Amino acid sequence: MRFLISLFSVPVLCSWGFSARPSRRPGAHPLIRVGGESTTCRRVHGCGRRRGRSRVRRIGWRLQSSTSETVEVRDPADESRLTVTPLSTWFAAVGGQAEQRQQFFWSWRGHEIFLDSFASQENLDKPTVILAHGFAASTVYWRETIKALSEDGYNVFALDLLGQGRSSKPYSNDGGGPLLSDTGTGSLRPALPSEVGKNTETNVEYSISLYGEMVDDFARQFKLEEVVLMGNSIGSLVCLSAATGDCCIDPYLSSRVRGLCLFNCGIGLNSMNVLKNPDFSRFQVALFSGLFGALNALIFGNRTLLRYLLNVVTEDLLRDALRSLYPRNPDRVDEQLVESFYRPAKTGGDGGVDVVAQIYTNEAGYTPMEYHDRYKDLLDSLPLHLIWGTADVVTPLTGDVGVFYCDRVANNRSGKQTTSIELVDAGHLLFDEKPEEVHASMFKWLNRKVVT
Ligand SMILES: *[C@@H]1O[C@H](CO)[C@@H](O)[C@H](O)[C@H]1NC(C)=O
Ligand SMILES: *[C@@H]1O[C@H](CO)[C@@H](O)[C@H](O)[C@H]1NC(C)=O
């Protein structure tokens, strides 16, 4: 019982942890040696990842429907769908409130997206920062990051992804309607303390692209001209999707992104993407896809079981699980943080069950490596900074994504030295576990590479 709960309650810990440590043929990857805390990861020898692209394709057939359809395809001509409110007039739009740190619900396609923001007119000369969280998390764990950025003169918007945190968790019954269009009115309203977004009966297919579109629409609606995207875990993939414009038919953000900062980048919407590792043999691929299939059928796709687990999970169980995600500083796990994971599990209803099942079992989208292949020019020229917690068991540095980025930095793969990485002795949620160190690295990068 306890095992099943922790399987769910630690954000995808088991499957992500597994994901990042596929068994490899010996010698296929270089060793990474890192010299203690906060060192840059230079000592990567040889070339990390074999570019077995045809092989990726071959093993990818069952994982990757690259033509995956999102539920709603946006008509590029339909600009009127969003009421565009330039950030410079945001201050008028939100109506003379003295507080610059404010919480809102932003109406997106008929859903309510929770937003924690800091916006000041004085900060308009700096790029605006958008923060995207990881699975089962919310804006709350960005508390120190929002504070640090705002004190350094940035306007910051942290969003709760649709279906998570305090945002709407649409019920996706078969009878549900398609995603709604925004009417263009009432697109922003202040959130009351503890208020959660209204759930609707809508068919939503969760994907990295859907979240990428959400971020893109947010930037479009508020006419952000210079943006820095920051993400953790799955949120990193959301940032890659939005920054490259892969999410959208008519992307707004991709020409306006000035930098990308990823904190322990994930491999995909779920761990199915590990099977794209070109070093896996056919046998391993078959074995692991069988295993994933079985786990999905028995546990992650079993809504009856998930509903039960969400009902019985307690704050104590969550606190234990969270402390294991803060291995170097477990005392940072306070009531506010526990509550931010606990409440969404209790208030989501069937929509909350559905989002968990979908995130585990849906098409995983591209890996970071695939984004770099597909959008090479764009991602080679964009300042990209990675801050990696070396005590992370969810997305360890020695996993495919960590190895890829270390190799990229150490061996100048972008050809322009636009990618940088710094390591911090912390876990998966490093910016909340070791805020000073992590933010020092973030600001150093912002000041050297972005705001020059
Ligand atoms: C889902 O889980 C429940 C409870 O553990 C179990 O009774 C049911 O058979 C499972 N359904 C499927 C399709 O595996
Ligand atoms: C990085 O690669 C580019 C292109 O290959 C090269 O011109 C540049 O000198 C390299 N920089 C370093 C420091 O190796």
Automatic annotation (TrEMBL):
- InterPro entries membership: AB_hydrolase_1, AB_hydrolase_fold, Epox_hydrolase-like
The AB hydrolase-1 domain extends over 127-435
Task: Reply yes or no: does the keyword Signal apply.
Answer: yes
Keyword annotations for this protein, in alphabetical order, are: Signal
A Pfam family of this chain: Abhydrolase_1
**GO MF terms, alphabetically ordered:** catalytic activity
Where is the signal peptide, in residue numbers? 1-19
Full protein name: AB hydrolase-1 domain-containing protein
Q: In which organism is this protein found?
A: Thalassiosira oceanica (Marine diatom)
Per the UniProt record, the lineage of the source organism begins with: Eukaryota, Sar, Stramenopiles, Ochrophyta, Bacillariophyta
